[in-house]
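TEACHING EXERCISE
Course module: macromolecular assemblies
Task: Read the component lines below, then compare them to the predicted structure of the full complex.
Student: A.B.
Group: 4
Components provided:
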Amino acid sequence: MAGKATPLPEAPSPGAGAPGPSLRALPSRNGSIRVTGLEHTYAAAGRVTKALEDIRLDIAPGRFVVIVGPSGCGKSSLLMMLAGLVAPTAGRIVCGGRALTAPDPDLVGVVFQEASLYPWLTAQENVEFPLSLRRVPRAERTQRARDKLALVGLAGFEDRYPHELSGGMKQRVSIARGLVQNPPVLLLDEPFAALDEQTRISMGDELLRIWEQTGKTVVFVTHSLTEAAYLADQIVVMSARPGRIVDRVEVDLPRPRTYAMMGTPRFAELRQRIWEQIRSQADG
Amino acid sequence: MSADASTRGAAATRRAGGWAVWLGALAVLFGTWQAALSLGLLSPMLLPPASAVLATAWDLVRRPDFLGDVGVTLAEVAVAFLVAVPLGIALGVAISESDYWSRVLRPIVFLVFSIPKTIFLPMFILAFGITFAQKVGFGVFSTVFIVLISTFSALESVKGDHVRVARAYGATRRQIALRVYLPSMAPVLLEAVRLAMIFNVTGILLAEMYAARAGLGQAVATWGQNYMLRELLAGILLIAAAAILFTEAVRWLEARCEHWRT
Amino acid sequence: MADTAVRRPAGAAPALRIAPRTLRVLLGFCVLVAWEVLPRSGAIPTLFLPSLSDTLAALADGAPEYGRHLLFTLRAIAVSMAVACGLGIGAGLLIGSVARLRRIVQPLASGLYAVPLVILYPLFTAWFGIGPQSKIVFASLYGLLPCLLGTIAGVQTIDRQYLLVARSLRATRRQTVLRVLLPAAIPTVLTSLRIGGALVIVGVVVAEMLTSAEGIGYLITRSRTLLDSPRVFAGILLVVAMVFAFDGLVRLLDHRTRHWRLSTRSGDGGA
Ligand SMILES: Nc1ncnc2c1ncn2[C@@H]1O[C@H](COP(=O)(O)OP(=O)(O)O)[C@@H](O)[C@H]1O
Ligand SMILES: [Mg+2]
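Instructor-supplied answer key:
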């Protein structure tokens, strides 16, 4: 069954003329990610779960990579490891040319699914939070947080508390918080899963705009095939039990992406291919 | 199968761990007790040796006068409990039956619940004198509100979906009551029983300590006034052990009922 | 409570029914009237229930004496409150955030919760005399367990994502406790404070009722032995007022931290 997966050519390695990022302003540090032989096993309540097996990733700086797969296939676990929050059972993660062993907020920003804003802080204070932990001077802190809130389109909402913001706005604040230390890599774990369809699409556009402007390497987890095809340079398809990579799909749709592209035959083809990979794994 | 066995194994380890914690706590208690004595922090007059207290406890449980006191207290506790729990549940169900009345009365119940009942003890003496009825009345008064409030939350724990499904399949009122409401409410109600017993026993012991001619509370108070610390400490240990064993037993039952819940 | 008045009852014949809040006020008024009328008309012997006006008169008459004893009681309450809530909440935060400690302390504390603590009071009077010390020790212990258990449970319910975010930002242990754990626990801490604080107040008064030569509780018991019902009720009224005042104070604090409660995972308040 593994034979059905026909991996496409690997993403070009940094410096080999990767499409896109050359035109954008690259952050000062290199946002490449290289994962080899990654494996993870959970042992909880006397039960052993093999969550991830033989994960290999090679992501060039400035690329937009989407990880898609059925729920429980280990997408979140993989992202936690890329964030340095969970130590893999085996394997190696090299990020920005250095082995990643612990959270490094200057290198990797993380956006969680929901409820990750602190309710006792305003939008502005939430975005400042990472800086205040590092004791960045107040004036600089305020300015940087303001800039990031403006970048995500929330100028004027600085003093709102999370409960005074809509679901989409909260995720914008989360993104601003993930960007405030200006890390070259941004990880997002199903950031729009709790939003309604319309908000979700416009948040996708918004994220693409931010990505174009900042040139970050983005790793985006979702279980939505449409979202995956709409956003990605490359789609990494995973299957469950144990979580493995079963396909890598290069998305050759032109940028900037538009809503109309979702109706094109090429878009349907891409979705079809991912779906077949996931389904064949589920049947087998 | 194997998963089931492993969870059961985990539960067994947890139970063994629970026993170990209690044994450890007892060791620490008696350890500090003996240490306080041998270091001379407290005179043996104020803190008799643990061995003497345990011997007194063994003595007490065979002494007819002590057993008489236990009997009086148990009778008061039992009657108050048997009145308060059904009364509280009936009131809770009655109030919840009507949407309107529950909105009128619930805030009042919560307000009254937030007032500590113990300070009303003198009123019961003024009304009933120093009698069995006064102790039971005060026990019921101390207990009924916690039962009432637990009944509210028990009723809320019944999922509307479960009731709707039962209705859709044509269940009768009786079937819904017995097959949906009862199993859903059982764990919450068992917790109510546990809390009710704590409130009840505290209320009745206090009433006995305050003014009584018999009963455990009266015995404890008298021992304290007469500096009979051996008996006092023995009594405290016995009452504490009984209370802890009772609640742990109910808690065990609660854990068994949890399986019904989703 | 205010919003129940605005919403119409969804059930039948809403037009005929009075708003629940109005009815509650009416009911409260009826209770007050009954308290005045029933004893006056002789339906209830005044020994059991002195009329409202008699009770208030007794309170006004004895004002200087009540004031003096109230001060004594309040001092004991203040000390006990600081001990019970300070220790309970502090230890609760620590124990709740260290899993190993929690697995030991939580079952012990909730087991001990079942012990009727009143029986310890005679021991404390034997050890510390009938002065304020025995009251303070007793009331502190009485309020301690609910504070401790409530705070431990509160720390447990803190969204794990909050801690994950802190960890992804490399917050130090100290930063995590002070800037995440503590603010996240504040709503539960306040609830524990409400419950524990009320118990501390009652603990002091009950201890005074049992054995004392001073304090509101002592005054209540003395009046009870003299069968002076109005003064017994006046004392009880005073204690109830004290509990309500404390409750109101904590509620006020609670209101100031509403952002905590409104922003739960599912509740999109301002969506
Ligand atoms: N902390 C954990 N302890 C034990 N098992 C876990 C833990 N986290 C995740 N798992 C298991 O690992 C697998 C992958 O989970 P996850 O990474 O959350 O998947 P996804 O994000 O794709 O839904 C699941 O089977 C899940 O049950
Ligand atoms: Mg996930």
